[in-house]
Design a protein that fits this description.
alpha+beta; Immunoglobulin-like; 9 strands
């Protein structure tokens, strides 16, 4: 009986090792093409969100594996394919940008780490102008509190700005 469990454990470990992405140093290289890698968007109002989808093509013979995608700003959330992209196939990298913390001209770089022939790192870029409303300009705290109220609606009693503070049960004597 112990032998059966041992064999099952070895089989499980060997199968799970094959499910991971291969090391970027040993994997076969391929060519990646990005449709419109540098984009200039029209101005948007502060507090608005914009979604940019970049189409990624595999133009080589080996599968394209995207290991990581990093943005130059925390105001961008990224969604990218976790599976490999086959020969002459495509995938999308989707960037969701939240303009609540920016005013004026902003420029963002997104670095893609993949098994490409020339360089391991490829950069895409987009820029835009974030403008304020001519009638009323909210500051960041107002935008933040509005969004927090929407997310916590019905879950917290009272005014979100007047909740006070809390202390630990243990007392520190100095």
């Amino acid at each position: 009986m112990k032998n059966i469990y041992f064999i099952l454990l070895i089989a499980f470990i060997s199968v799970s090792c094959d499910l991971r992405k291969p090391s970027i140093d040993t994997v076969e290289r391929t060519k990646m093409e990005i449709e419109d890698p540098e984009r200039h968007y029209y101005p948007i109002l502060r507090g608005s969100e914009i979604t940019a989808a970049y189409k990624i093509f595999n133009r080589g013979d080996a599968p394209l594996i995207i290991y990581d995608v990093q943005a130059s700003c925390g105001c961008i959330t990224i969604d990218y394919p976790t599976n490999s992209i086959g020969k002459d196939d495509f995938g999308f990298i989707t960037l969701d940008y939240d303009s609540a913390k920016n005013i004026g001209y902003v420029e963002f770089y997104v670095t893609i780490k993949a098994n490409t022939v020339k360089e391991t790192f490829t950069t895409i870029k987009f820029d835009l102008n974030v403008v304020t409303s001519a009638h009323y300009t909210q500051d960041y705290e107002e935008i933040y509190l509005e969004r927090r109220k929407e997310k916590l609606a019905g879950e917290v009693d009272g005014d979100l700005t007047q909740q006070g503070y809390y202390i630990d049960d243990t007392k520190t004597v100095r």
